[in-house]
Specification:
By secondary structure, the protein is mainly α. The chain has 22 helices and 12 strands. Helices cover about 40% and strands about 5% of the residues. Helix 7 packs across helix 20.
Length: about 625
Amino acid sequence: MKNLIHLKIFILLIVFINSCSKDFLDPNPLSFYAPENVLSDGAGLQAVLDRALQNLRDEYCTDQAPFCTNMKYSDVAVDGSTDKATPWQDLNNQMLPDGTNNDLAYTRIGWYWDNSYFNIKNSNTVITRIDNVAFRTDQAKNALLGGAYFLRAYRYYMKTLQYGDVPLVLEELSDPKVNFFTTTKESIWLKMIKDLEFAVIHVPEADKVNRGQVTKAACKHLLAKYYLLEGRFDDAIRMTTEIIDGGVHQLCTQRFGSDKNIADKDVVWDMFRIENKSISGNSEGLFLTIDRYKMEGNTSGIKSMRNAVPNYGQTGIIKTPNGANGLSDAARQEIGLVEKYGRGIARIRPTHYAQKGVWTVNGIEDFSDYRHRTDNGNWVTMEMLVYNSPALKNSNNEWYGKNLQLYNDQGAVLCSDTIRTWFSWPHYKVWVPDPDQVQPQGGPGDWYIFRLAETYLLRAEAYVWKGEWQKAADDINVVRQRANAQYMYTASDLETQKTGAVLDERARELYYEEPRKVELTRMAITYARTGIQCYNGKIYSMDKLSDDNFWYDRVVEKSDFYNKGIRTPYGNYFTCSPYHIFWPIPSYAINSNTGGMINQNKGYPGTEKNIQPLVYSE
């Protein structure tokens, strides 16, 4: 028998009977509830942890995937929906504590509030009960405990860099509880570091576990990020170096896998074929979420094309130079664009910075870089598409089959919605076959959470903080060399650009992979905690973080949308303010917590009720 309770304020919580239930219902109330039956063996506890791992698919592999929210509130993208007024684009007026915060038509920030506690709950179940369960060896016990520590630390990493100070829950709770108190993010980070330091000792290497399970390298990778938050740069270098030099993981530099014999493709294309991500020939992945066709729990597929590809096929949006309707995304046409590129609706819309700015060095756009290569279709621009509407052929229109143009000879724009419909994208990364859709949107497939290229960029960042410019340049260039980039960074470049160079390479390498808002916030906090001067000349401080921070300055610097007067057809302006570095704590969480106090973040209604947050110490 399978039971389960979804908690609306804090958690989705499974009630386990006999082992770990895989299904869940969606009811009600206001607090944590404990499982009724004791999980009596290691397999049962592993099943609990597997449920938390499965939740990563919901974060990365769904329509309007929650991780995309972190892209929208950053320098690389915005919400591209222009067919309604509901999407949170005008953050100054829409990002509010009582707003609709977990809806595909609005925003998904609320997913992180609710689901993080669901995963923390599962991790705490393992941590709390592990001493009451018999294991064959202490090694097996500690490996499982380390995995639970990692998943809890992963969720608190995301949550504190999205919401700031939050309640800290470290134990499985046996009774309903509505008396939570906010804990400082800084003290939460210290606890997570201690737990991860245990995990990196006891969690096995990737070649000793099944793909999709927690690995030693993943623990080190996450720990390095926590060390960067703490200003422990030498420790971050030590952790990342252990991964890079450890012999288990290497960058993919040679052709491999399913498409390796397609001559005009390259290793970057190979890395992102769904059938290649988890094979033995690919050792770049440190941590993946596994998503396979008809796998239990897979209900929608990755939807990567739906999320990241322009809404190019809607009738009437793109005209030919002689004024006819130009495109169709109907399936099985003579010129089948939808079969080739997928059917997108631009859930995320890349900024000019992400499309062109980072690819242009010394005034020249680098199309030799495999990640931006158009001659083999890795990267797609709108001008590579052709007018394919059957009505054009039927009327003998001269533009049928010819490449798209944004302007006619008189300079008039031929696209009526350039926000949602006209932008370029990394086809190599988001193209995922979709066997059950006539109009493919992104079917099932494994997805990288952490991979070695980011490890190099984390180490480069640590060197930047230390002022070791050549070492930082060397690590960035390792990633660039693999991608066949034509320009290699110098020590002088890093001294001038500092973290800007790292962020640029992260945008090139990790677009549609990294939770960009979270990583910008992490850097913003490091700037504020250390007082190191930013490449923009500013020095930040923690006491003014919500009023003056690097996250905001970077977004305004690089985005061509936020605070630039850009307006959607439904009237939304793209706006943001410095206090949006942290999202609002949902009103339902605060109001239902009748016996305690969850503080609201500065800039949002309700802060007048805040009290001094707790400081965790062991």
